[in-house]
Amino acid sequence: MQPPAPQSSTSDPCGRVGSEGDASPTSESEKREIKTLPKIEIYSSKFCSFCWAANRLLKAKGVEFTVYSVDGDPEKRKEMTARGGGPTVPQIFVDGRPVGGFDELTALDMDDELDPLLGLGSQPSS
Ligand SMILES: N[C@@H](CCC(=O)N[C@@H](CS)C(=O)NCC(=O)O)C(=O)O
User: Ligand 1: which of 80, 88, 91 to mutate, most ligand atoms within 8 Å of CB?
Assistant: First the structure.
């Protein structure tokens, strides 16, 4: 199938017409708003199968996330609990809110609540 021919202007079903390269501040800020994804953080430890599993689940979701290692870092572990996380690793935070560990992450996924939490839309079935 041939790709669509390049056009000098675009229109959408709402009847809006715009030139290619038209990047008014309004349309750019709208795009940024739409693309804003939640900040995902995980406190993790090297020799921890639950951490490995949580990392794997998040990677499978295709989201970006920040990993903090608590290994040999008691301050990081204190920070984890001070933020409302539990005492075990992993602890996952989404937009600063504590989600829990791997069990809670999996439970959310089973209830189809994880994707929306991670800012993912519903995936079309193939
Ligand atoms: N139910 C928890 C279990 C987590 C867990 O037991 N983590 C272990 C390491 S794999 C842990 O933190 N143990 C105590 C510690 O390392 O201080 C979860 O699903 O995340």
Answer: 88
Read off the pLDDT of residues 12-33 as tens digits, 9 standing for 90 and up: 444 444 444 444 556 665 555 5
CB atoms within 10 A of CB 70: 21
pTM over the 0.70 mark: yes
Contact 46, 86 (CB under 8 A): no
CATH number belonging to the domain at 40-117, selected among 3.40.30.10, 1.10.260.40, 3.40.50.300, 3.10.350.10: 3.40.30.10
In angstroms, rounded to a whole number, what is the distance separating the alpha carbons of residues 48 and 114? 22
